[in-house]
Design brief:
Elements (H helix, E strand, L loop, with lengths): L6 H39 L5 E4 L3 E8 L11 H19 L5 H23 L9 E6 L4 E2 L1 H18 L13
Antiparallel strand pairs: 1-2, 2-3, 3-4
Protein name: Lipoprotein signal peptidase
Membrane topology: Multi-pass membrane protein
Pathway: Protein modification; lipoprotein biosynthesis (signal peptide cleavage)
Length: about 180
């Protein structure tokens, strides 16, 4: 059994703090960017026509989304809020085991994305845990926000790390 006096225990604890810090910084920076851009979108885009940035590809279009991706599950806003809370708790609890930069970034993005949309669901109209998410980045097929971008990149990183067999602690799964 390792104790706090064991050098490998101290080294692991210091290493873990590095990855937890990276996870925290990624989550906080992306969450702040998400919330600031949503405030700006409400201020500058609400009630206006779409602003085309790249013709046929990218516009700024204000939308309040009661559901999940592509407005699916619009009648389940409370359930989506509770799922987001559970995801956030699970990710935060998992963070203490991080020993891999990729997982730290991926889970930081996952937390930022889940929290970014959860903040909207808690604090925006029409009611707490039933609020509508502010979306404004129009890709032509769907309209999203910075939190959605974070969730997409989180999924890519997490799937990539898992596919390569890299665990949270940075070790590799042995191929059978």
């Amino acid at each position: 059994m390792r104790t706090h006096r064991d050098p490998s225990f101290v080294r692991d604890a210091a290493g873990s703090r590095t990855y937890v810090r990276l996870f925290t910084v990624v989550a906080l920076v992306v969450l702040v960017i998400d919330q600031v851009t949503k405030v700006i979108a409400v201020e500058k885009l609400q009630g206006r026509e779409s602003i085309e940035l790249v013709p046929g590809l990218l516009s700024l279009t204000f939308l309040r989304n009661p559901g999940a991706a592509l407005s699916t599950g619009a009648g389940f806003t409370l359930v989506l809020s509770l799922i987001a809370i559970a995801v956030c708790i699970g990710v935060i609890r998992t963070a203490s085991r991080l020993r891999d930069k990729g997982w730290a970034v991926g889970l930081g993005l996952l937390l930022a994305g889940a929290l970014g949309n959860l903040v909207d669901r808690i604090f925006r109209e029409p009611a707490p845990l039933r609020g509508h998410v502010v979306d404004f980045i129009d890709y032509g097929v769907f309209v999203g926000n910075v939190a959605d971008i974070a969730l997409t990149f989180a999924a890519i990183i997490i799937v990539w790390r898992a596919w390569r067999g890299i665990r949270l602690d940075g070790t590799r799964e042995e191929k059978s």
